[in-house]
């Protein structure tokens, strides 16, 4: 997959791929940004990826998803701004069949984003003079 990353102004950095654009921004001097930060989008990809797997699990079994939500918490080590642990709490309504609780956890753990973090890719960063 190829993405084009561009700089539309201010502290904005956007990613374009297929018919989509993911907008990011960096807040400055106490002012909120016009879009989430790139790191917030990265963190959101963890929870939304797990959510896609939970949604698919429920749809395959004809289970209602109303009242299900995932609460994601990012924990950092003291003195560091790096995330050391991510918690995904799958909240289900009281009437959700208990027999599926552990299966939801296993299913959410199959998330492709999580698997990439567990087995990170090699990064090759370089410059190239564009042909304008």
Brief overview:
With 132 residues, this protein is of the alpha+beta class. It has helices spanning 38-61, 101-108, 112-118; strands at residues 4-9, 12-17, 20-24, 69-76, 83-91.
Q: Termini separation (Å)? A: 23 Å
Please indicate the count of domains.
2
Estimate the strand proportion.
25-35%
The amount of helix comes to 25-40%
CATH class of the largest domain: Alpha Beta
Number of helices: 3
Which structural class best describes the helix and strand composition? alpha+beta
- Give me the count of strands: 5
Q: How would you classify the quaternary structure?
A: single chain
Q: Major sheet: size, sense and barrel closure?
A: 3 strands, antiparallel
Give the CA-based shape: globular
Task: Look at the structure and give the mean pLDDT.
Answer: 94
- Major sheet strand order: 1-2-3
Alpha-carbon Rg, integer: 19 Å
Order of helices and strands: EEEHEEHH
User: Any guess at the CATH architecture of the largest domain?
Assistant: 2-Layer Sandwich
Low-confidence stretches: none
